[in-house]
Each structure stands twice: as structure tokens, then as C-alpha cells.
Design a protein that fits this description.
This protein is mostly helical and 84 residues long. The protein has one domain. Helix content is 67%, strand content 0%. The chain starts with a helix and ends with a helix.
């Protein structure tokens, strides 16, 4: 399903895949956060920010690499405050 979501970029499928993150292994979560989600899309950006609490350090680092070129908006700061 990850491959299909990466190919189709279907917003509904990407949203539904987020529900499976807890049962994905680190490599699958890495694919989700690094190839399927786009920091330019507000909903994807929210998923990326939530991913900063992932249990895998390498996944967290990849998310930071993806987000480092984008400014944090007020909404992002509010979301981070809620998460942590």
C-alpha cells in the first residue's frame, strides 16, 4: 500500500495509512515520512510534525531533514506544543 500511495498521491489513502503507523516497522515508517508526505501540504506537514515523536531515532532525524528547509508557522508551533 505504501508503494501505491507514493505512486498515486491519493490524499485519502495517505490519510488512512497514518492509522497503520503504530504497526509499521521503522523502514516502513521511514518510507511514509520521507517519500509519501510532502512538507508543502498542510495535512502532510501535520503528520510530519507528529512523526517527530516516532520511537525510531533515524525516522525522527529524517523528518527533521525534510522539514529543515521550511519555516515553522504559528500553527506548527501550536501543534508541537500540544504534542510535547
Amino acid at each position: 500500500m505504501l508503494g501505491l500511495a507514493a505512486y498515486d498521491r491519493d490524499a485519502d489513502l495517505i490519510r488512512r495509512l497514518a492509522a497503520f503507523l503504530p504497526i509499521m516497522d521503522a523502514s516502513q515508517r521511514m518510507v511514509y515520512y520521507s517519500t509519501i508526505l510532502s512538507p508543502e501540504v498542510p495535512e502532510h506537514r501535520a503528520f510530519l510534525l507528529e512523526g517527530l515523536s516516532d520511537k525510531s531515532r533515524s525516522v525522527q532525524e529524517r523528518i527533521v531533514e525534510r522539514l529543515q528547509y521550511y519555516p515553522l508557522f504559528y500553527q506548527d508551533m501550536e501543534r508541537l506544543t500540544e504534542l510535547y
